[in-house]
């Protein structure tokens, strides 16, 4: 069963509960800054574990203590409820 793409109104409503996330190039995006590379990599590992449990994988970018995350459901052709759910889980880490 395919996951449906959310409307702009649905995305806006979901993002109202997320701090620091934005829609950039059709993806949910957030940047994180950590004390050092080890802390950043540890965070990425936690994100990877949460994502694997959901079978929904983010686009992760890391340079030293900076991590950028983009969330999009490729099968839906845009942002889906899975992206909002994963964003909430990431914020909980």
Automatic annotation (TrEMBL):
<dbReference type="Pfam" id="PF01329">
    <property type="entry name" value="Pterin_4a"/>
</dbReference>
<comment type="similarity">
    <text>Belongs to the pterin-4-alpha-carbinolamine dehydratase family.</text>
</comment>
<protein>
    <recommendedName>
        <fullName>Putative pterin-4-alpha-carbinolamine dehydratase</fullName>
        <ecNumber>4.2.1.96</ecNumber>
    </recommendedName>
</protein>
<keyword id="KW-0456">Lyase</keyword>
<dbReference type="InterPro" id="IPR001533">
    <property type="entry name" value="Pterin_deHydtase"/>
</dbReference>
<dbReference type="GO" id="GO:0008124">
    <property type="term" value="F:4-alpha-hydroxytetrahydrobiopterin dehydratase activity"/>
</dbReference>
<dbReference type="InterPro" id="IPR036428">
    <property type="entry name" value="PCD_sf"/>
</dbReference>
<dbReference type="GO" id="GO:0006729">
    <property type="term" value="P:tetrahydrobiopterin biosynthetic process"/>
</dbReference>
């Amino acid at each position: 069963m395919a996951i449906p793409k959310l409307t702009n109104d649905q995305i806006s409503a979901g993002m109202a509960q997320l701090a620091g996330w934005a829609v950039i190039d059709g993806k949910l995006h957030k940047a994180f800054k950590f004390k050092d590379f080890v802390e950043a990599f540890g965070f990425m590992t936690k994100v990877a574990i949460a994502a694997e449990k959901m079978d929904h994988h983010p686009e992760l970018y890391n340079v030293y203590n900076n991590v950028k995350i983009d969330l999009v459901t490729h099968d839906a052709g845009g942002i889906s409820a899975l992206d909002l759910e994963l964003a909430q889980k990431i914020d909980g880490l």
